[in-house]
């Protein structure tokens, strides 16, 4: 079906899409910091919730968007015609032929509001339905329906708002669906319907429920509804349905007035308004509020604060200003205005992931709430740029999720320091988890210059699982709390640096029979989950190896930092892992590595001694460098492979039969993108090898239709590697264009100076995502592109953080360098506008900066260098060489706050 796709309107990211309901699986997020999490489709399907156990609208997955009849609705009964839905949600309008011939719809959406316009040519009636979640302390979603007579004769109609009230936990959607409706206590008041279930239904213990769900409404003049249909079966009538309710179709008088109570039924916020006579050209508006509260609601306050058109418009303006202000902290201006506007939506995505987790939108990786350990650290990459004030505190809190064995809790709760071993208490370790915290912490330190962050004390996570979940400590009970203790019963604390050391050194010794780090439960690709005994992740061995090198340099800097130190303190048990300080281990000997690690594990179960050892920072740095150097050499020597066709790259994995995964195979060449990303990014691949890798990737993984695949076709289920290969090829983790790893591939190429190759990768992600004819998604980057080119799992993806970070720090070259500002542009000629300028607005050192690159000679990357540098039109004596300029932090910190400061860099051939 042909469609022109969405188009941007103006310069603030607002986009418009004609006939949006003719594309499936579309939805839009609406959310606030108070905890209201909603989604709306072009027909106002979606959900509204504050968490897994408190859904106002029925919990859904993406298939429900077109299969369910339960949606927000607003009905008009027109004299001489009958029932018509302002949202297009009626049995009559659902026929595409009817819609295309007699109705036209369009969608406009911005940050973060959603407006659906539906106009019926036969009825001469236009409905504009605007939805948003206001920036208030209430968990509330607002909807305004504006009806306009577009004809030449008077219209007479009766309006009815209809919002189904699910009002309970997602767990009750199938099991106990009817039984939990018996708990419903339904109340009507002057402006609406309220449901407060008597109990929170849970077979582990039924608790008295306080949470309340409500739908309230008023006409534009504040006039309340004239009555209600609060019970679903009464509203739809015998043989009726939510998309053809008899109360509307037959224009029945309302069942009840304010002050009624009903018990034990499914509920609906069906609000009947007074009949209206609407003159030609005239309009009338209705405000509907959907609220989740901690107890019975103050309905008078709700009406006063939300149920007037003036207040709706004020809150909408406030909402728009709030989100635009948040997103203006980072914005790009290049030679492609459309891509710049698209990037504003990508900028929103890390914030949405912080607020929604990986749940509560129609596409979700898991639906019970919370965020995974890996998600937290990668989302913080972008939040360090977007919301820097909070991130240092956030990073500090979440180091408390590290275990003393170098593993960690896998689910992060809503409160600081709230950790869970796993969603289902399954003892698994994702071997990559220890690698991400250092990456994020390094970015924080480079941005802030706060090296002393490493010396802050923090607790450790403790639960029943020990030795990287290989054993259980049966003497441990939950009532002991979730913090590690020393032998004397005191809560043990170690520095942040100690936590980082553990997470990176333990894996170094935790190796399989080929000398690479064990795959354990899986690495970042959770689908590689069937090789716990003999599987190895070469890809993340490379990541940990580069981490050890970074950590070596970081620790060495402690001695010369302001308020620095030449010693660090660690738990005495950990010292054995810094083997070169006492008894060096032969790193070629796998049994020797494993034996040392087992000795360490035994020494920290069931508790640590609490004693500390002081170590010289330079000696610790040298130990880490020794480990890194060995790993670099090992990977280059053992894991570099060549296909019969003559292409070369790094093997990424060993399976549970201890067999190398990649290379030539009877079913075709097997290759993974992950194995290339971390070897390039971490410096394991030499410059010559990077060139060979890109050729191999282009040969075996690049697909013009869907971009860079995560892996080539393996051709069979891999029960000795992971469930991912049970997925159809070209979907999710089996051969799709998985945005996360594709963007990281681009980042790695930029980092190593392969700019044109990196740009080609980034361009493919944008081109695929923005091609609405194929991707069928709103602006933004999806989790992955499937075999048909459709964008999947929109909004909630860690790839957005990596895309922002890559564009800012690599393409525009704006990054911290231990607190100073480093400028190293890698912009290609086409990324400058017609005047030869490209710029980015970002925050650094607490100041808002506009960094402008002027390429007046229109020179290609690789042929220009940094010339004059000016700050607010004043020349800077910037220490610079061919590609890099370093501006001292002090020069920025002395600038006034609250204004945008301009740094202008002239590029010269």
From TrEMBL:
InterPro entries: 6-hairpin_glycosidase_sf, 6hp_glycosidase-like_sf, Gal_mutarotase_sf_dom, GH65_N, GH94_catalytic, GH94_Enzymes, Glyco_hydrolase_94_b-supersand. Residues 104-307 form the Glycosyl hydrolase 94 supersandwich domain. The keyword Transferase applies. Residues 628-810 form the Glycosyl hydrolase 94 catalytic domain. CDD domains: GH94N_LBP_like. The keyword Glycoprotein does not apply. Keywords: Glycosyltransferase, Transferase. This is Cellobiose phosphorylase. It comes from Paenibacillus rhizolycopersici.
